Amino acid sequence: QVQLVESGGGLVQPGGSLRLSCTASGNIFSSSVMGWYRQAPGKQRELVATITTGGTTNYADSMKGRFTISRDNAKNTVYLQMNSLKPEDTAVYYCALEWRGLRSWGQGTQVTVSS
Question: Read out DSSP for 28-52?
């Protein structure tokens, strides 16, 4: 079973930036679609961004132009660069790995945007 470990969350002021990282165990990372999702208190988990094995990216509309997803297959790591953060970006951010129709989740990392 693959394990995903996120890092990089924290407290940031509005307009600030954070970079999240997620490292996967095992040897299926390079053949997996990777994604970031988030869940705010009292809300459903929502898509932030995905990146395919070939590097094609997809973003939720509210993140376009502010967030950038990338991957480093040599390091089994996916990144989420978040710029121009807003208070409404406050949530637990989860990394997800999709391989052969199965999805695995990380434990989540808290991002709080507040002055």
Answer: -GGGSEEEEEEE-TTS--EEEEEE-
Tokens of 88: 């409404």
In the chain, the N- to C-terminal Cα span, in Å, equals 40
Q: What are phi and psi of 64, to 5 degrees?
A: -60, 135
Query: What pLDDT does residue 1 have?
Result: 84
Check residue 25 and give its pLDDT. 95
19 with 80: CB under 8 angstroms?
Answer: yes
Intervals of the chain under pLDDT 70: none
| CA-to-CA separations, 6 to 10, 15, 105, 111, in angstroms, rounded | 12, 22, 10, 12
**Alpha carbon 66 to its chain's center:** 13
d(C-alpha 115, C-alpha 112), whole Å: 10
Percentage of the chain surpassing pLDDT 90?
A: 98
CB atoms within 10 A of CB 9: 18
